[in-house]
TrEMBL record:
The chain crosses the membrane at residues 15-35, 47-68, 88-106, 147-169, 194-217. It holds the Pfam family BPD_transp_1. Keywords: Cell membrane, Membrane, Molybdenum, Transmembrane, Transmembrane helix, Transport. This is Molybdenum transport system permease. It comes from Cytobacillus citreus. Belongs to the binding-protein-dependent transport system permease family. CysTW subfamily. The keyword Transmembrane applies.
Amino acid sequence: MTDQFLAPVQLSLKVSIVSLVIVFVIGTLLAKFMAHRHFRGKVVAETILLLPLVLPPTVIGFLLIVVFGNTSPVGRWIQSIFNHPVMFTWWAAVIASTIVSLPLMYQSAKTGFSEIDRAIVEAARVDGASEWHVFCFVTMPLAYKSLVSGAILSFARALGEFGATLMFAGNIPGKTQTMSTAIYMSIESGNMNLAWTLVLTMIIISFLMLISISVFIKK
């Protein structure tokens, strides 16, 4: 019971943390780029970025298999480098979690960047600050509440990812079995004690994530 509980919890946390790092970097940079730019096709580009929010997990899982599967060019390229396919590994779970949580980070970061007074940014540039310094020491500090909120929501979303992960990473105990897939298999096998333990753990973690956003925003 202990190993059946700890293994998926540890894997879920590892996957969510790695996914969060990737999502935070990519989502923040994309949001910064898109926040104050207007170009042809921007609506289409943003719609594509936000699609994982509304697409069924099975569709996302299917597309991941098509793109990263063993017979795809990307899948064969990854296999040639690492001598192992990405499917049915914990990295597949990271990719799935990253895809589904990226829109939350992007949207939150974009909102924060859009609300920054442009006069403050321009003043920093006039004073001689480089674009990198403006971004690190002016833009990000001013949008930090939105960035932290997006990071927490992205982490919680990655932690609860199920459908795409099950299709793309599989459900291999001790290797790719996350808490969500472990709950599903526990119910299927009739192990309700394990299912309840995992469910309560997920509820507690998610509750703490959401309440931390409320407390942080009020500061």
